[in-house]
Write a structure and sequence with these properties.
The structure holds 2 protein chains of 2 kinds. Chain A has 6 helices and 5 strands. By secondary structure, chain A is α/β, with parallel strands linked by helices. Chain A has a single domain (10-175), classed as Nucleotidyltransferase, domain 5. A 5-stranded mixed β-sheet of chain A has the order 3-2-1-4-5, with helices on both faces. In chain A, helix 1 (44-59) packs parallel to helix 2 and helix 4 packs across helix 6 (151-168). Chain A starts with 9 loop residues before the first strand and ends in an 8-residue tail after the last helix. Chain B has 7 helices and no strands. The mean pLDDT of chain B is 90. The chains are: A alpha/beta, B mainly alpha. At the A-B interface, strand 3 of A face helix 1 of B.
Chain lengths: 176, 111
């Protein structure tokens, strides 16, 4: 029996945000099948869970990648932490492998010395996938503005790439 | 990795066309039918598949990669059975050509 190629993976990466979540489906080496954000209203966690389950059923991912919110130093809101745990449980019930990476790990992988903003990371991702993500990059946030929900897409892309890099033992420099 | 049944949505998003616009190109009134195809809820007709090929400039085997993969697997399995049958037959002038055709089918699927 031949061993499956290390890059032959369908990755579903989810990044919850204050208005819903952003997700990306990455296939093979660098094919973005879908990258978008979903907005929910009412009981946000319940709505997000419903949508995530539908995504898992539709795309049948080999692995689900998310941020590790239970790590020390994580600054995510308690609702998001609960949501992440719920998504992880649902995915495991559906026999989908779950991989978690902390924010710090992601920043250290893609930004020099791990120093930079969320927007810097988003710009790197947009440069990496200009065709699919270039048009989705929001303008840099001013201090009086709320965060653009599309930022969650770039967080999801970074997490998915993080998994791919770890899987193939590549260095992030090769991405640029 | 098994491919997704189709990549219509991914391909459409890359062209920046909306469902309504593609539906118009297909000669449909609304995007509902296209939406069903993109959600893998139903399989389009042959005419529609060819229309997708013309709109997106991609072969149908690429647009419907999962479906193609599934069909190909079936063909390869049957080709192996057929090759075994041919080996048991008396050799004639067509046998070598038939055997080569079947080898091509099975080897193509490995690539």
């Amino acid at each position: 029996m031949t061993q499956p190629n290390k890059k032959d993976f369908r990755i579903l990466s989810i990044a919850p945000s204050y208005r819903g979540f952003g997700f990306v489906v990455l296939e093979g080496e660098e094919t973005i099948v879908e990258a978008t954000d979903k907005t929910v209203k009412g009981d946000k966690n319940a709505q997000v869970l419903k949508k995530v389950e539908a995504l898992i059923a539709h795309y049948q991912p080999d692995v689900l990648v998310m941020e590790n919110t239970s790590v020390e130093g994580s600054r995510r809101w308690p609702r998001i932490r609960t949501l992440c745990k719920q998504i992880t449980k649902r995915a495991e019930l559906r026999k989908v492998r779950v991989k978690l990476y902390s924010r710090e790990q992601v920043m250290k992988t893609f930004l020099p010395n791990g120093q930079g903003t969320k927007h810097d990371l988003a710009e790197i991702m947009a440069k990496r996938f200009p065709e699919q993500l270039g048009s989705q990059l929001p303008p840099k946030r001013k201090f009086y503005m709320n965060e653009d929900p599309r930022m969650a897409i770039f967080d999801a892309v970074a997490l998915a790439l993080m998994f791919r890099l770890k899987r193939t033992n590549q260095k992030p420099q090769t991405l640029d | 990795m098994t491919r997704l049944p189709n990549y219509l949505r991914t391909t459409r998003k890359r062209t920046a066309l909306s469902q309504e616009e593609v539906a118009f190109l297909l000669g449909n009134h609304g995007g509902a039918k296209l939406c069903r195809h993109e959600r893998f809820a139903c399989l389009p007709k042959l005419e529609t598949i060819l229309a997708f090929e013309a709109i997106y400039h991609k072969p149908a085997s690429e647009l419907f990669a999962g479906l193609y993969q599934e069909i190909q697997r079936g063909i390869v399995a049957r080709a192996k059975i057929l090759a075994h049958k041919i080996e048991c037959e008396k050799p004639n002038r067509h046998a070598a050509l038939r055997r080569q055709t079947l080898i091509n089918i099975t080897s193509k699927s490995l690539n």
